[in-house]
Design goal:
By secondary structure, the protein is an alpha+beta fold. Helices cover 29% and strands 26% of the residues.
Length: 368
């Protein structure tokens, strides 16, 4: 598949579609009535959410359970651009921190992450964020284009913020929450056999023995997963309207930039991430309901997603990758970089004297 560079121009120019949307109907590998383990979350600071599964209840036995969040989904998909088949589409930026090498594609806050902010790329990235604030996203696309696709917020410095072009979430509907209990039994009775001191009356020692596996430890009523009686669905959106807000220094470069970012976004959007989300949560397509992908227009029209101008029945990942490859070559992918993390920059970053550290930030927040 070649000469696709202009096929998607109607999507990146004004009055194009609002979005592409995917709906995937999923079931646990054990079957539609199988138990699935959603993500668990810490309690909120005010304890209004006590921690555990994120389940919103609406009455009449209707609820929605968050199985995999938008951030988690992005972190599962973005690293695909480090794989051999996709790595030439984006610059490979690697930060060496001690004995570890971290690809920017794996950094939680992308181009706004501390790992790259406190590297020798600090000033280059700062200038790129400032250029974006002034209407030119090309410098950022030359360093960290997936930050423009999956969203970035330079919250510790320039405050440049770009929304996600791609958002994907997995939810379960009308879930029934289960609990589970377990009992740990040590290999021998260490105290009774005189191998360890009796911890009676010494809570600290008793807790230490339990933590290290020397005594019986019951675990009762812990999270046991859910059964999604109303089904499980992955909803993904590629916001073309948001893509059209991204620009470069002139009309020609803006078109090249938008084509490039659309190619990356389509590649990520049509890529099928693993359904194995965590222990106890392995999801596959529901063979009866399957998957649908639609183009949604501003007037509400919804059409099957296909390459504009082609007679194909559905937009495929192979077509998306072919377009992305052409668009990347036309735009000019930024250079690969292997840069060191700087402990000096990190110390300066957290120092109150520089105005970047938390104490200084809190002080500023307190001013009227």
């Amino acid at each position: 598949m070649k000469n696709m560079l202009k096929n998607f121009d109607s999507w990146v120019q004004e009055n194009g579609p609002a979005a592409l949307v995917i709906r995937e109907y999923l079931i646990p590998v054990e079957g539609a009535d199988g138990v699935v383990f959603p993500a668990t979350f810490a309690a909120s600071e005010d304890k209004s959410f006590k921690g555990g599964y994120n389940i919103d209840t609406f009455g009449d036995d209707w609820n929605v359970c968050l199985i995999d969040s938008v951030g988690s989904q992005a972190n599962r998909i973005e690293p695909v651009f480090a794989q051999a088949e996709y790595k030439r589409l984006v610059p490979q930026v690697v930060v060496t921190a001690g004995n570890k090498k971290i690809n920017l594609l794996e950094a939680g806050h992308r181009a706004g992450d501390a790992i790259v902010r406190c590297s020798t790329l600090q000033e280059i990235l700062r200038d790129a964020f400032k250029a974006d604030l002034n209407g030119d996203a090309e410098p950022l696309a030359k360093i960290a284009p997936t930050s423009l696709v999956f969203g970035v917020w330079d919250s510790r410095d320039t405050q440049c913020k770009r929304p996600r072009l791609i958002a994907s979430t997995v939810r379960g509907y009308k879930v029934k929450k289960l609990t589970r209990s377990a009992q740990y039994n040590p290999a021998t009775a260490y105290v009774d056999e005189g191998l360890l001191d009796d911890a009676a009356g010494d809570k600290k020692l008793k807790d230490a023995q339990a933590e290290r596996g020397f005594v019986h430890v019951p675990a009762s009523g812990s999270h046991g997963g859910v059964i999604a009686t109303g089904g499980i669905r992955r909803d993904a959106t590629l916001h073309l309207a948001a893509l059209r807000l991204i620009a470069s220094k002139d009309e020609e470069r803006t078109l090249a930039l938008r084509r490039y970012l659309l190619g990356l976004a389509l590649t990520a959007f049509t890529y099928s991430p693993s359904g194995y989300l965590r222990q106890g949560c392995n999801l596959v397509l529901d063979p009866e309901k399957g998957r649908e992908m639609k183009v949604v227009y501003g007037d509400g029209r919804r059409e099957d997603a296909k390459v504009p101008g082609l007679a194909s029945t559905a937009l495929t990942h192979a077509q998306a990758l072919a377009f992305a490859t052409e668009a990347a070559a036309a735009f000019g992918v930024g250079q690969d970089r292997d840069v060191p993390f700087s402990s000096d920059l990190a110390r300066k970053d957290v120092s109150p004297d520089t105005g970047n550290g938390k104490p200084a930030k809190a002080a500023r927040a307190g001013k009227k």
